[in-house]
Amino acid sequence: MINDIQIEAENRMKKSVxxxxxxxxxxxxxxxxxxxxxxxxxxxYGSNVPLNQVANIGIEDSRTLKITPxxxxxxxxxxxxxxxxxxxxxxxxxxxIIRIPLPPLTEERRKxxxxxxxxxxxxxxISIRNIRRDSxxxxxxxxxxxxxxxDEERKGQELIQSLTDKYVNEVDKIxxxxxxxxxxx
Length: 185
Description:
By secondary structure, the protein is an alpha+beta fold. It has 2 domains: about 1-25 and about 105-185, Topoisomerase I, Chain A, domain 4; about 35-100, Gyrase A, domain 2 (2-Layer Sandwich). The chain is about 60% helix and about 15% strand. It has 4 helices and 6 strands. The chain has helices at about 1-25, 75-85, 105-145, 150-185; strands at about 40-45, 45-50, 55-60, 65-70, 90-95, 95-100. The strands form 2 sheets. A 4-stranded antiparallel sheet has the order 3-4-6-5. It has a two-stranded antiparallel ribbon with strand order 1-2. Helix 1 (about 1-25) packs antiparallel against helix 3, helix 1 packs parallel to helix 4 and helix 3 (about 105-145) packs antiparallel against helix 4. The longest helix is centred in the C-terminal third of the chain and has 38 residues, at about 105-145. The protein starts with a helix and ends with a helix. The model has no long low-confidence stretch (mean pLDDT about 85).
């Protein structure tokens, strides 16, 4: 019973951490990273398709992404989709190749992005603490229904707390790493 609660709590906490990681990949550092374009979708013959399914995406140099659509007709569509995204990128096209130069971040923009990263990290921590609260409530319910004893309850609470500490520390590490990435000039 307590094991089930622990497993469910751990799975939910892992999802919270992976959600944070996914959100942070959308925050642009000064370096080129193909995951920056992950959320861009293209209208491909009537259906919405991720960009990486209609084009080859690569890194040309540390500040330039290179996209090569598989069909000539897709070049303008891809270019339009990138410009209309909220990433603030300006692609340049040469034949079948689309290059996206990533401008260096200003000091002010870096600080804004760090604030956003910290907010995302705090939201993840809140989510993890809510999962802890739910799990502890489930354990208390088992105790009140006399399905477990007080010793098992205490052990369950310690397990849930150690999980919470583990994932909160993981969130802190992820946020710290992203901050370091943002401060590299």
